[in-house]
C-alpha cells in the first residue's frame, strides 16, 4: 500500500470510530433524558404514559398521608389549577412540607397516580424549583383568563 492510501485508511477508520462513539453517547443521553410536566399538562394528557418524567408544583395542604410501613407516603401536587396524586416510598427530604414547592421524578400509572422514585424539595423559603414556579405562574395566568 502506498503511504497516501495508508493515511486515507487511518483517517476513514478514525472517523468511523468517532462516529460510533458519538452515536453511543447520544443514545445514552436520550435514554437518561427526563422531561418536566406540570399537573395541568399531565391532566391534559401531554405527559408520556409508561416513561419516566418529572412533575412539579406545590404540595397541596392537607394531602400528605403516611402509610403504616413508615416509608410510603402519598400527597397531591398542584399548580393551583390541576392536582396530581403522588405516591413515594422512601425517605422524604427534611424540607418537604405541605404548601411548599416539590419536584418528583417517576412514572404515571394507568390509574392516574404518579409513582415517584425521587422527591426533591426546596432548600430555603425563597427558592422554588424553576420548573415548578413557571408551572404555577402559567396555571395562575390561565385561571385568570378563564374568569
What does this structure look like?
This protein is α+β, with helices and mostly antiparallel strands. The protein contains three helices and seven strands, in the order αβαββββββα. It folds into two domains: 1-33; 36-146, Nucleic acid-binding proteins (OB fold (Dihydrolipoamide Acetyltransferase, E2P)). It has helices at residues 3-32, 39-43, 130-146; strands at residues 36-37, 53-59, 65-66, 72-78, 83-89, 101-108, 114-121. It has a five-stranded mixed beta barrel with strand order 2-4-5-7-6. A hairpin with a 5-residue loop joins β3 (65-66) and β4.
- The overall pLDDT, averaged over residues, is 85
The largest sheet, given as strand count, sense and whether it forms a barrel, is: 5 strands, mixed, barrel
Q: Total strand count, please?
A: 7
What is the assigned CATH homologous superfamily of the largest domain?
Nucleic acid-binding proteins
The gross shape turns out to be elongated
Terminal residue distance: 79 Å
C-alpha Rg (nearest Å): 22 Å
CATH class of the largest domain: Mainly Beta
CATH architecture of the largest domain: Beta Barrel
Strand order of the largest sheet: 2-4-5-7-6
Estimate what percentage of residues fall within beta strands.
25-35%
Number of domains: 2
Amino acid at each position: 500500500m502506498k503511504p497516501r492510501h495508508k493515511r486515507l485508511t487511518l483517517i476513514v477508520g478514525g472517523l468511523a470510530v468517532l462516529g460510533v462513539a458519538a452515536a453511543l453517547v447520544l443514545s445514552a443521553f436520550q435514554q437518561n433524558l427526563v422531561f418536566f410536566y406540570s399537573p395541568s399538562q399531565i391532566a391534559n394528557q401531554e405527559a408520556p404514559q409508561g416513561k419516566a418524567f418529572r412533575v412539579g408544583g406545590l404540595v397541596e395542604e392537607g394531602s400528605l398521608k403516611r402509610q403504616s410501613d413508615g416509608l410510603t407516603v402519598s400527597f397531591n401536587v398542584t399548580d393551583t389549577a390541576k392536582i396530581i396524586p403522588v405516591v413515594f416510598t422512601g425517605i422524604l427530604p427534611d424540607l418537604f412540607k405541605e404548601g411548599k414547592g416539590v419536584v418528583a421524578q417517576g412514572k404515571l400509572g394507568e390509574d392516574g397516580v404518579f409513582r415517584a422514585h425521587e422527591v426533591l424539595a426546596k432548600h430555603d423559603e425563597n427558592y422554588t424549583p424553576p420548573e415548578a414556579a413557571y408551572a404555577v405562574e402559567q396555571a395562575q395566568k390561565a385561571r385568570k383568563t378563564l374568569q
